[in-house]
Amino acid sequence: MFRGQGGGMGRGGGRGMGRGRRWGQQPYMPPYQQPYRQTVPGVVKVAAPVDVPQGINSPISYVFARAPYFALVDVRGGKVVNVQVLPNQYAMGGGGVGIAVAQWLLSMGVTVVVGPPLGPKASALLQQAGVRMVPAQPGTPLGEALKTAGIA
What we know:
Layout (H helix, E strand, L loop, with lengths): L42 E8 L18 E8 L2 E9 L9 H11 L4 E4 L4 H9 L3 E4 L6 H7 L4
Parallel strand pairs: 1-4, 4-5
Antiparallel strand pairs: 1-2, 2-3
Helix pairs in contact: 1-2
């Protein structure tokens, strides 16, 4: 049986009987998000919401879940070894975006989040998973925020 998202008057009355993904099937994830989850011993994975994709010079965003980009930083021995800036696929989403972004970051193995204050649900989910949250002043370049937090 397929579960859809229609709201029509046809068969099923818009209650999920139309086309769509199969019940319990994982949603499609674009290829740019899949390869990042690599667990390397001694590497701390840091995520930060940023406004523009300028690598280590990207300014920290004023918002968390609706930031246009997320910088994913690998830090080993106090030194930045990799920076990847990805578009936030949830930036224009409806309600519950904070939880979706938190789950996305967890799926990539993030252990530290640097940025503005998080919403209560996203914060609770990340804390429950053992992710450390470090406040950072919005507008601060990512490299500077990492140094201020004592990460890199």
